[in-house]
Amino acid sequence: MQKRIILLIGLAFGCKKAEYLDINAQDRSALSANIRFVNARVPNTGIQFWTFTQQITTTPLLPGNSSDYRPTTFGNVQINFTEGNGTAYIASRQFGNSATYSATGGPNGPIAGYYHTVIAAASRNDVSKDSLILFYDDLSTPPAGKAKIRLIHLAYGIGAISANIFQNGKENKLSDSIPYGSASGSNILGKAYDSAPFSVIDAGKISVGITNKASNTPILINTLQDIQLEAGKIYTIFLLTNGKGIVSANIL
Known about the structure:
It is built from two helices and 18 strands.
């Protein structure tokens, strides 16, 4: 696993190394990772995101909201968030300091030139504690007439779910099982984009059906009905729960 991570980072730098070095040093743009930040917590409080001691977001994000992509530090990075205009860290996580998932670190940090989504959400077993999750975003353009979609399960209090897509009278499986804190099709032992891969589907109108795996009962979410997907666009759907236990979905 450690070797795979080293090779991956090498590729991220190596693919444009010659082009980058051909530019005079004073004219080179600074290398950075690009991160979009999302609030999927239960408390109805706006939060700000930081890398180390540098504040990255400029407006507190309420639950269900996200920032645009922001240039940030890459590599071994500590990401934190604060509530409102406060400066006390509510949760912190060090990314890039471990080859495997653990209670204190993630397997990979932000990669220079890559796009990422970092989400603040309740920890798996305790709503009073918070966690930070990092996914890599493959923003390559879908084929003609297609869109790309993925679903991230952050609805606290619900175990694994399954997700199906209904389109043009047909039903297709998006994922048979998505544990809390994971994305459809996720493989955390794979390459970077395997942590939260996108599925390529026909553009047009779709509905997404969610089922609680434990009880085998559907979870009805109005915002997942009659979604219009545009050709060439990329969509991330994430589920979240509010303080009353109501599950909703937002689309990025």
